[in-house]
Automatic annotation (TrEMBL):
This is Peptidyl-prolyl cis-trans isomerase. It catalyses: [protein]-peptidylproline (omega=180) = [protein]-peptidylproline (omega=0). One of its GO terms (biological process) is protein folding. One of its GO terms (molecular function) is peptidyl-prolyl cis-trans isomerase activity. CDD domains: cyclophilin (cd00317). Belongs to the cyclophilin-type PPIase family.
């Protein structure tokens, strides 16, 4: 029961691919020297698409994580997240909460915008993307489904308890070693890493995606 309560606190704020598209995705991943066989084992492989925006999270001294964002799953969440990226809001922020065998959380920025509605089942939004290893999702307050701003987390392992409760919106395509390195760091009693995990930058390749105006709560 104690662990159950802790996990609730941690997450609070402080289309199937057609054959042609699948081939394009595979070619692109191979060009980026991304292990396609590893990705095929991931639960969200079916959501990967050549046209999805690709983000690069550069972590100081540890390397990079790349992820695809899934506008078809959570469009407003994706637009909101990209807006923070384009404003360079995540530059020199941190992964401030880390729990091994659960998730790593970051995204505290100097200035947040208005909150957005949560795109997940308990908030009457059909979001089929489950919280499996590598999935990106949005943190929120414990008391409001419509309180997502800039904080996000990346799943270290599968955790179905979160499905339908949080707005998942993307998935890693590389950098799982970086994810594991962060998740295995020593932390204090607040799950804060003893050594700061700095996000030097998050950038986005929009590909063919057109960012829409964010809808706020």
């Amino acid at each position: 029961m104690k662990k159950f309560s802790l996990l609730l606190i941690v997450l609070c704020l402080v289309p199937l691919i057609g054959c042609g598209k699948e081939t394009e995705v595979e070619e692109e991943l191979e060009e980026q020297e991304i292990d396609l066989e590893t990705l095929k084992d991931l639960a969200y492989y079916e959501y990967l698409n050549y046209d999805n925006p690709v983000i690069t999270i550069k972590v100081k001294n540890l390397g990079e994580m790349k992820a695809q964002l899934f506008p078809n799953v959570a469009p407003n969440t994706v637009n909101n997240y990209i807006t923070y990226i384009l404003d360079e809001s995540f530059k020199n922020s941190q992964f401030h909460r880390v729990i091994k065998d659960f998730m790593i959380q970051g995204g505290i920025v100097k200035q947040t915008r208005k909150a957005i509605p949560g795109e997940f089942r308990k908030n009457n939004f059909d979001n089929p993307l489950n919280h499996t290893r590598g999935v990106l999702s949005m943190a929120r307050t414990a008391t409001s489904y419509n309180s997502q701003t800039s904080q996000f987390f990346i799943m270290h392992v599968n955790y179905p308890f979160l499905d339908g409760d949080y707005a998942s919106f993307g998935g890693l395509i590389s950098g799982f070693d970086v994810l594991d390195a962060i998740a295995n760091m020593k932390t204090n009693f607040n799950d804060q890493p003893l050594e700061a995990v700095m996000i030097e930058s998050i950038t986005v390749n929009l590909k063919n995606y057109e960012v829409k105006e964010v809808i706020y709560a």
